[in-house]
Description:
Layout: H1 6-18, H2 23-42, E1 49-54, H3 58-73, E2 78-83, H4 92-104, E3 108-109, H5 114-117, E4 121-125, H6 137-148, E5 154-158, E6 175-179, H7 184-187, E7 197-201, H8 207-213, E8 218-220, E9 244-248, H9 255-267, E10 272-276, H10 282-288, E11 293-295, E12 306-309, H11 317-329, E13 334-336, H12 338-344, E14 356-358, H13 362-369, H14 373-378, H15 380-391, E15 394-397, E16 403-405, E17 411-413, H16 426-440, H17 445-467, H18 474-489
Parallel strand pairs: 1-2, 1-4, 2-3, 4-5, 5-6, 6-7, 8-17, 9-10, 9-12, 10-11, 12-13, 13-14, 14-15
Antiparallel strand pairs: 15-16, 16-17
Helix pairs in contact: 2-3, 3-4, 9-10, 9-16, 9-18, 11-12, 16-17, 16-18, 17-18
Amino acid sequence: MKILTAAQMREADRRTIAAGIPGLILMENAGCRVVEFLEKKYAPLERRRIVVVCGKGNNGGDGLVIARQLWTRFRPAALHILLAAPPEDYQGDAAVNWAMVQALGIPFSQTLDVEMRAATLIVDALLGTGLKGPAQGHALELIRELNGGFPHAAIVSVDTPSGLHAEGESVRAAYTVTLAAPKTELILPPTCDRAGAVTVAPIGIPPAFIEEEASHWLNLVEPTLFARLFAPRERGAHKGSFGHVLVFGGAQGKGGAAAMAGAAALRSGAGLVTVAADRRERATVTSLMPELMTGDWDDGVGDRDVLALGPGLGREPEAEANARYLFANAAVPAVVDADALNALASTALNGSGHVRVLTPHPGEMSRLCGTSIAAVQNDRVNIARTFATNHACIVVLKGQRTVTALPDGRVFVNPTGTPAMATAGSGDVLTGLIAGLLAQFPHDAVDAVLAAVWLHGRAGELGAAELGEQCLTAMDLLRYLPRAMNELRS
């Protein structure tokens, strides 16, 4: 699914109207989709006390449609429209809907009263994507009221939380029903934290217009991209059908990292996994999962199908030399993480022509690029895209909303994950998941990587929901991985 800027969304909207679909119809569709969401999430609406906050623009017009639909279809226990401007200020399609609201006699006011503050549900239709810069004046006052003045109410924002801007205050929504396509502010940090759970609602804008406007190739990761990879296996399959992963790492004192990567590769479905580790660490590897085989660093890649390079590798000169050699010469796909990334910093990064997946955290990315961590975090999408295109590799830039950049310039933003995953070994598990899925689906490398990243984050979410954010460990991710996979099959 394409992610659009506010300007791109406005242009797609303009083109739709120019093509013959009236703006009034788009507004009606938008309101209906939000009401459908409210009915699903907050039923029975008949028992709700609802306030719909309407600005004077098209976002407010959507709110007026929502109020009318709620009034005529559900008759909530209480329904009030809070206008952010005098009625005479409403123009165009919003004015048409205001006239219909008046004809129905729906209660409205320009000021908050005690009865409104007893609301159990707020619909935020104050400011939309037309906002330029931080919210100010009366709009800012209303945003503060919405955030602090309704102690018993959940807030659902229409298209975008009002005032959503990196440098200003905005509504803090429980849910956002965004129209036609996700917007960058809803998906990328830091503003995504204020959007709550985001649902995309089609309103009649032709998909071709959205595709054509999204010239920057920014995409949201969706399970539909890779769900087919988790279809039932052929009945005659055997372990050789699903690839052999070699994990290269596990220096003395760091065998656990290589073992976790190997365990993740097996749990993801790889048929065979060998962990090449220091001899003193092999007992650690097999004690974690006896199905893992072990080997020597000197054995090379051999007949393995995928290389996971770096978990627990260490920073000794010999280890770093091995990492550079294998990156450049291994004639198989390679997933590169941890100490191997540090070994590749300041090198030419010339691969063998086979798939190379780099999985840096921001610190490792800064070393690869020769820039600061702050610079990486301030421009994650473009930093990852530039590196991927310049070095013909796939970059998985870890962190909140992990970014996967491809050599052709496409970028995918992953919506799953939780702060609970900020724990030792989480990256090793991701490396193993990517390697295991690449071993099974060598001809679907991009989808395999996207699937691994999504599953990694989703397993973390499921684990954190049950164990809490502080208690989740990296190995817990493998415990919840089957449940995350089952969601793809349902």
